[in-house]
Every structure is written in C-alpha cells, then in structure tokens.
Write a sequence for this structure.
C-alpha cells in the first residue's frame, strides 16, 4: 500500500449526477480530491429526475436498502418511497455534503481521449446547452452513467402512418403525465416493472383500453410474499443467497450443494406454489415456464400492486409477443394478433454502453457478446485512470454504488488493502466471465453487470479489499437479515483513514 503522504490530490471528473454519481463525488471529495460532476440533464437524480419519472413510480427496494451508508431516508417515508421522495432525498444528500457545488448541469460528454501532455488522465470534450464544445483535462474519470441512461429505440414499419392518424409513440421515460392515457387505447410493450406500472396507471387514469405486450411470462415478486412477509426477509438474506452455487467454489462447497440440492429444490417449488396462488397466475394465464431459481437476477421485477387483478378481470389485456408493424391505427403483433391503439408506450429499457469512450478502449471494456470486462464490476486494468460506479446493478442499488465508490477511490489512490495487480484483475475477470457464460447464464444479463442474487458475496469482496477491520455482523444477523447500511457504514469506518495532500 502506498503511504498516504505520497497521494497528490487529483482533479476527478464524475460523469452522471444520479445515485452513483453522487456516491462517487462524495467518496472522492472526502479523500481530498477536487471533483467536477458532469450531468447532461437540467437536474440531478438520474432515473429519479422528475422529468424522467412516470406517474406513481416508487422504488422496488425497501427504503432501508435503498440508501447511502451515511444517510438514512426520512422516517416519515413509506417502506417503498415514491419518485419525488427519492429525488428529494438525493437533493438533500447533495446539499448536505456540498456536492451541488460540484455540479455542472446541461453539460454532455461528447468524447474523450488520453491526455496529450503525457500526464495520467483523460481529455474530455464537453458541450453545453447551446452546443458550444470545450476540452478539459482530468486526472481520473469515474463513469457513473449506469444502466438506465440511453433509452432503447424500436422502429417498426407503418410508424409514420400511425402518427399521421393521431397515434403517439413514446418511450416509458416520457410517460410522465397520466392525461396521456385518459380516454385513449393504450398499448404498453415490455415486461419490466415500469411496463406493468404504466399499464396499471393507464387504467387508473381512465384509459379506454389497456393492453400489455411481452415475450413471455416471468416470475414477479410481490412486496409481501403470502401477503404477510416483506420480500426482503426472504430474497435479500445470506441464507437464501447461499442456495445458489457461486463463483470459484471449492470441491467441498460443490459437494455441500449436491447434498442439500433436494432441500433447495423444495424451497423454490414452495415459493413458486405460493406465488401462483397469491398472484392467481393460472387464472391470468401467466405462469412462467422457467424455474424461479434459474432466472433470479437484476431483471426479476416486483409485482405492481393491482396488475394481476386487472389482468384477471380484463381491465388489462395481456398479449404474448412483440410489435411487428403498424397498420393505420392498429398494431400488428409478431404472433399475428391485431390491437387498436392511440398510444404505444415502449417500456423496452435502455441501451447499455459508454458511447463517449474511444473505440479502441470500448473493445477492451466489452467483449463481442456484450459481456463487460470489469474487476469487481468497477475497474478494468486496460483502462487506466478510470473506473465505473453503479455498474454493479442489484436490488440494493444505492448501497452497491456507495461501496463501489469507496472501493474505487482507494483503488485510484493505491490504498486498497488488497490492491490487485493488473494480471490478477485480468485473471479474475476471465474466471467471472466463465462463471456467467457457462455456470450461471442468468448472471449474464445486463452485460454481466448484475450482482443479484449474490449481494453479500459481492459486498464481502469489496469490504475485504478496502481493508475493513470489522466486516460482519453476528452470525444470525448475517444469515437471516437483509444487508444493513448502518453496519456497512461501521465497516467502512473501520478501514484505515487517509486524505490526499498537496
């Protein structure tokens, strides 16, 4: 480990002012670095920026899991805070730690290249709201654009005719006013929580008809399993996580999994039976074909309250397939079914990528099959003076970003207790890619940037790397309780302290 006295303050560019960008800015500024946050929107918050939030949006995670280690959400907030409440929390966090003074809004990163002066770091091409472009040098870049940055597009034949007849086509991020649906025939494409949220909202807003279109039925988890138990007490605990074979398993661990396989199988079949009964999946003709344990990853959505009852009684019509083409005021599905529509909402997610990174570095970051080459889902040894915060997607988004940011600043400063060599990083990346491609393909979603269901395992690695002297709670708390942000605050505080100095 490098002596703290040898660490010079860096000028760090944090790209993105959402959950992850604020975490990174806080981590680097706390260690004595100068931080500039570049945000292309007019406000902070990322997906929680009001202009990007659809009506009645709320977190998928309970508030005690959707928080930073150094700031709890207000006690008055409900268990699952609303979009405006999360935005207010982030805004308050930024003001409390002076992050708002580091913000440069309405500024877009157009491109970047290694500094020409031979010094470590990058030169970024930045454009302002008026389109004027300038170039600025930074010693280190934290990419915090995350996975919900650039909306996916879908172009189908007949779109122009559909629009000419008064039809409206919009991405889910633009569905921000329920009056869009009132009195109109709304067709939502997608199977995510945003898709089911918008379908339910359209019904409540007085839509004439509501149809949701998705490729296949998926397991959705209700806020309270069996109507009684908060799902965090079942799916967020280490005991459940240990039912999934993990990476780098020893021969003894593999043997233990084989021995306990019948019990694990019974656990999942019991959960499936409970969900089928509670959500009336057979009545809705929406029983998934896939076993629930084979698909647990970051794409498992929470069941929107009211969605299944509305499908069961016909207020929402469910169609399996995708859009094939538009014909007049009708959308023709891939299976041939025709649905009349006035509004088509494309809840089809976002494009994953770092478009401003030069192509030569893109090739080092992303393999041909779309899998990301990131050690701990944070850094790549072949992309110097750069790291990624918030790319470790999970059910505990804020906590993941917080720990990743604290890991990254120490990595950048050479202050990790387990500071990896470039070759060790490459070897680990290869091992993890093999695990995601061969041993557990479900872990390959979102470019392999998914922590779930291995939250504790991921956090264990980051905390050990950081060098926390305290790393775990007592045994029962660790096995049968969800992650505790306050506990991770203590773990972080137990690591060696340092600050960059000129």
């Amino acid at each position: 480990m490098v002596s703290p006295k040898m660490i010079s303050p860096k000028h760090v560019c944090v790209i993105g002012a959402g959950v992850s960008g604020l975490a990174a800015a806080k981590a680097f500024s706390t260690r004595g670095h100068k931080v500039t946050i570049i945000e292309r929107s007019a406000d902070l918050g990322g997906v929680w920026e009001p202009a990007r939030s659809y009506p009645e949006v709320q977190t998928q995670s309970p508030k005690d899991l959707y928080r930073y280690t150094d700031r709890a959400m207000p006690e008055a907030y409900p268990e699952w805070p609303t979009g405006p409440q999360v935005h207010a929390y982030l805004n308050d966090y930024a003001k409390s730690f002076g992050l708002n003074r580091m913000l440069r809004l309405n500024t877009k990163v157009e491109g970047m290249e290694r500094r020409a002066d031979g010094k470590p770091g990058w030169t970024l091409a930045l454009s302002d709201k008026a389109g004027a472009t300038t170039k600025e040098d930074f010693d280190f870049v934290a990419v915090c654009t995350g996975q919900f940055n650039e909306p996916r597009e879908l172009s189908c034949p007949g779109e122009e005719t559909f629009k000419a007849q008064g039809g409206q086509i919009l991405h889910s991020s633009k569905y921000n006013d329920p009056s869009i649906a009132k009195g109109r025939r709304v067709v939502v494409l997608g199977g995510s929580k945003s898709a089911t949220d918008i379908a339910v909202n359209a019904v409540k807003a007085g839509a004439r008809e509501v149809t949701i279109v998705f490729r296949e039925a998926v397991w959705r988890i209700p806020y309270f399993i069996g109507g009684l138990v908060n799902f965090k007490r079942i799916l967020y605990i280490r005991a459940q996580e240990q039912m999934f074979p993990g990476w780098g398993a020893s021969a003894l661990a593999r043997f233990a999994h084989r021995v306990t396989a019948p019990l694990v199988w019974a656990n999942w079949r019991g959960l499936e039976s409970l969900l089928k009964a509670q959500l009336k999946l057979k009545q809705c003709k929406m029983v998934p074909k896939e076993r629930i344990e084979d698909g647990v990853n970051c794409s498992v959505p929470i069941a929107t309250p009211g969605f299944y009852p509305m499908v069961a009684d016909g207020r929402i019509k469910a169609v399996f397939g995708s859009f094939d083409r538009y014909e007049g005021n009708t959308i023709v599905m891939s299976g041939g079914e025709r649905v009349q529509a006035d509004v088509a909402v494309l809840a089809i997610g976002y494009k994953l990528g770092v478009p401003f990174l030069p192509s030569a570095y893109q090739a080092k970051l992303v393999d041909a099959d779309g899998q990301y080459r990131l050690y701990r889902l944070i850094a790549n040894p072949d992309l110097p003076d750069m790291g990624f915060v918030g790319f470790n997607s999970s059910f505990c988004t804020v906590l993941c970003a917080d720990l990743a940011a604290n890991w990254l600043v120490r990595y950048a400063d050479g202050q990790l207790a387990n500071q990896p060599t470039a070759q060790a990083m490459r070897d680990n990346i290869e091992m993890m890619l093999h695990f995601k491609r061969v041993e557990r393909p479900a872990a390959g979603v979102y470019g392999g940037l998914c922590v779930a269901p291995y939250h504790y395992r991921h956090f264990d690695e980051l905390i050990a790397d950081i060098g926390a002297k305290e790393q775990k709670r007592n045994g029962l708390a660790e096995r049968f309780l969800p992650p505790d942000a306050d506990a991770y605050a203590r773990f972080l505080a137990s690591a060696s302290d340092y600050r960059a100095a000129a």
Observations:
- DSSP finds 15 helices and 20 strands in the chain.
- The chain has a mean pLDDT of 94.
- The longest helix spans residues 251-279.
- The longest strand covers residues 108-114.
